[in-house]
Specification:
It is built from 18 helices and 14 strands. It has 433 residues and is α/β, with parallel strands linked by helices. Keywords: NAD, Oxidoreductase, Signal.
């Protein structure tokens, strides 16, 4: 099939490449000229394992191309996929201006029947608005569908090629049939449903995963007080198939471009119909507090942070991505700077993106994990990049001024900790040293 994907970000680029890999002809469109130039020159504007090679292969096979020309791409396409951003407005509601702009551009370029698919995460009722925006600008016939995206950053290619399910929300049976055929090569559960339910499935899924995280983080906070170990508790809970073992890793709370904005948006969606989503409000509140436990533990270990040198390992909101949107590291580093600390920070991939959000003469941007640890009074591990776990605590002790670690991701084992001189503060595990 001939596809046009509007928005070549984390979702649009990965989806476009994967649809090309399935044998479709795909044009990825973005209004950001730098992004398109980079892609055309063989570069990749985001870090995502496996993506670069897949792009190269599909471009060489003539199935994948990149452009800023929306009109020409829409004209040539049978299916147009909207994958533009839906960030939060100040009140938490989803900002639909990019969706509206893209839908209007599609409408103005219509030259025959097309199916317009929304992959962006949008509030319930948005696809009906998209239908109206387009219908008000063109007389050509078209179908709309909500096909929400469930990929995770850091494993986006695998998630897209091996999804747990595909949700197709459409009211027109022809649209459902065409989109089912498009997704069939993925050999997974394909659920066809109405548009509003499809839109809600996306928000409910993200809200549920966020709830699991805040739940286990609260259990961790209690474990710290009663002397239990949250990693053992999560293991024991997760063996119950009704609970499941995933998303039970206690830590410094969820960040990223999606859980924070989508939980806020769902609270707003409920509020708009006079329903107070009390549970989800608590999930958000717990999550916001969780990251500041790092500061509390640092103060417990060091006392006043004024003039202290604190190492930070990990700036991305999770490993294997360069995405720093709503990364816990941002709030934590801002608090440290307010408390008068000096910071030595390192991330394998995300430093350049992070520096666009926060830069200060009080922060030294290190080129390696070891360099960040040098001379520090304490070290905070905020993102569980694999390379951090490979550095022995004995070696780290040699580099640092004091052997104090706040491990926000429970990376080191009890055995490693007990054999080391470190004063080690983890999340929800008993004090071991
Ligand atoms: P992103 O910010 O990485 O990419 C969006 C892209 O759209 C940008 O490159 C921007 O330049 C482009 N764009 C905006 N308006 C345009 C227009 N009119 N024409 C052409 N290009 C335009 O965003 P993202 O992270 O890929 O997220 C996109 C959507 O997918 C959001 O609704 C998000 O909630 C949802 N989602 C994201 C993820 C994720 O892991 N990032 C996963 C599932 C769903
Ligand atoms: C999440 C969902 O997992 C995807 O299904 C969804 O498509 C996406 O949001 C979206 O809608 O954008 P993502 O944000 O990329 O994906 O990454 P996750 O792996 O879900 O991690 C999110 C945050 O939760 C990270 O900060 C991570 O550190 C944290 N987390 C995750 C925990 O603290 N504990 C866990 O057990 C799991």
């Amino acid at each position: 099939m001939k596809l046009c994907v509007i928005g070549a970000g984390y979702v649009g680029l990965v989806s476009g490449v994967c649809f090309a890999a399935l044998g479709n002809t795909v044009v990825c469109v973005d209004q950001n000229e730098d992004k398109i130039h980079e892609l055309r020159a063989g570069g990749v504007p985001i870090y995502e394992p496996g993506l670069k090679a897949l792009i190269k292969d599909n471009v060489e096979q003539g199935r994948l191309s990149f452009t800023t020309d929306t009109a020409a791409s829409v004209e040539a396409a049978e299916i147009v996929i909207l994958a533009v951003g839906t960030p939060s407005l100040p009140g938490g509601e989803a900002n639909l201006s990019y969706i509206e702009e893209a839908a209007c551009e599609v409408a103005d370029a219509m030259n025959g029947y097309k199916i317009i698919v929304t992959k962006s995460t949008v509030p319930v009722g948005t696809n009906e608005r998209i239908q109206n925006w387009i219908a008000s600008r063109t007389n050509y016939p078209f179908g709309v569908a909500s096909v929400p995206e469930f990929l995770r950053e850091g494993s986006a290619v695998i998630d897209t090629l091996q999804p747990d399910r595909i949700i197709i929300g459409a009211s027109d049976p022809h649209v459902s049939t065409v989109l089912t055929t498009l997704h069939e090569p993925l050999t997974t559960n394909i659920v066809t449903t109405d548009i509003r339910s499809a839109e809600m499935i996306k928000y409910a899924s993200n809200a549920f995963l966020a709830t699991k995280i805040s739940f286990i983080n609260e259990i961790a906070n209690i474990c710290e007080k009663v002397g239990a170990d949250v990693t053992r508790v999560a293991h024991g809970m997760g063996l119950d198939q009704r609970i499941g073992s995933s998303f039970l890793s206690a830590g410094i709370g969820y960040g990223g471009s999606c859980f924070p904005k989508d939980t806020q948006a769902l609270i707003q969606i409920a509020g708009n119909v006079d329903y107070e989503f009390k549970l989800l409000k608590s999930v958000v509140e717990v999550n916001q507090g969780q990251r500041f436990n790092v500061i509390r533990k640092l103060k417990e270990a060091l006392g006043d942070l004024e003039g202290a040198t604190i190492g930070i390992w990990g700036l991305a909101f999770k490993p294997n991505t360069d995405d720093v949107r709503d990364a816990p590291a941002l709030d934590i580093m801002q608090s440290l700077l307010e408390a008068g600390a000096q910071i030595r920070a390192y991330d394998p991939i995300a430093t350049a993106n992070f520096r666009r959000l926060l830069d200060s003469s009080e922060v030294t941007w290190a080129d390696s994990a070891r360099e960040a640890a040098e001379g520090c009074d304490a070290l905070c591990l905020l993102t569980e990049w694999e390379e951090f776990g490979d550095i022995g605590l004995g070696e780290l002790n040699e580099l640092m001024k004091y052997p104090i670690m706040i491990d926000g991701r429970n990376v080191y084992s009890e055995e490693q900790i007990r054999q080391s001189p470190f004063a080690y503060y983890s999340v929800g595990r008993p004090q071991m040293n």
